[in-house]
Specification:
By secondary structure, this protein is α/β, with parallel strands linked by helices. The protein has helices at 44-51, 73-76, 95-105, 110-123, 139-151, 169-184, 196-200, 219-224, 238-244, 272-278, 295-302; strands spanning 4-15, 18-29, 33-37, 59-64, 67-69, 80-83, 157-161, 188-193, 204-209, 212-217, 228-234, 251-257, 260-266, 287-291. It has two domains: 4-222, P-loop containing nucleotide triphosphate hydrolases (Rossmann fold, 3-Layer(aba) Sandwich), CATH 3.40.50; 227-292, Alpha-Beta Plaits (2-Layer Sandwich), CATH 3.30.70. Helix content is 32%, strand content 30%. Strands 6-7-8-3-9-10 form a six-stranded mixed β-sheet, sandwiched between helices. Helix 3 packs across helix 4. It binds adenosine-5'-triphosphate. Residues 15, 20, 38, 40-46, 85, 162 line the site of adenosine-5'-triphosphate (ATP). The site of adenosine-5'-triphosphate has 12 residues, from helix 1.
Length: 308
Amino acid sequence: MGETVITARGLTKSFKGFKAVDGLDLTIERGMIYGFLGPNGSGKTTAMRMLTGLLTPSAGTAEVLGMSVPKDAEALKYHIGYMTQTFSLYGDLTVMENLKFMAEIYGLPRASQKGRISELLERYELTELAERFAGRMSGGQRQRLALAAAVLHEPKLLFLDEPTSAVDPESRRHFWEQLFDLCDAGTSIVVSTHFMDEAERCHRIAIMEAGQKRADGSPQQLMDAMGASVVELEGPTLREIRRRLPHVEGIVTAAQLGARLRVLVNKSIADPVAFLTSRSETEGATLIEQVRPNLEDVFVTSTGEGRQ
Ligand SMILES: Nc1ncnc2c1ncn2[C@@H]1O[C@H](COP(=O)(O)OP(=O)(O)OP(=O)(O)O)[C@@H](O)[C@H]1O
């Protein structure tokens, strides 16, 4: 096993008796992009805020970069970067002023500030925008500025809370390339998302639901270990089949995707295609074939909708 950057045991946060994060165990290794995948309210932000030392856990322990949080939060802040869900820089300061301000906050030596800021302006395509007020920038530009600010002090560990929720797919792809560059240069990254395609890019993910971790592993491991087979059906009567199937024992879920019905069949059924073909509920189907699982299937089988 590699060096560990985060270890959490039983991490819990209650707000007036409501457990936003409930007994979270985590082991995150260095050099990894680790994703929290979960719907709104599943506890991703709360977990991150505890791991950055900003929020005191109600129970459990966490060690981040060898420091105990929240006790060592002050020292930890110089070694981590945190990009929050909402833009946290100053709209009425320019790009340059924002970065200079952050450089002061992080205590970057004056002599190296200028060089580091120009390097980041260049890397994140902000040089031309240096005098623009941050409040006047597009979603994608703001996101690049927020990332530049979060890595100004060359943190060893970077937390990104739903970083691409407000940007278009092209900017999102570009942003992920930048994350892989950072990762390649030795930065470990923890990122939260509710996008499946984004989670699929992570080296490892935790699937979160109602404050608890439902699954943990690489996307491939999770797909391989899934407790269901995936079968797709075609035919003119898909909506009827869709209505009938959920009542059949052994069917986990059925959902239409374009011209196909995607059906998750419990792994206990050895030949899912033969099983579905023999059922009267699939009458009218012109094609029944097994396909490869994707992360959304894993998500469905490990969260409330599909858990047995
Ligand atoms: N300060 C707080 N006081 C009370 N309840 C809170 C507080 N912070 C979070 N919660 C609740 O805890 C739950 C988890 O919230 P959290 O923001 O961690 O989820 P999330 O997965 O990050 O979702 P989102 O994407 O919406 O931020 C939610 O039900 C939320 O309303």
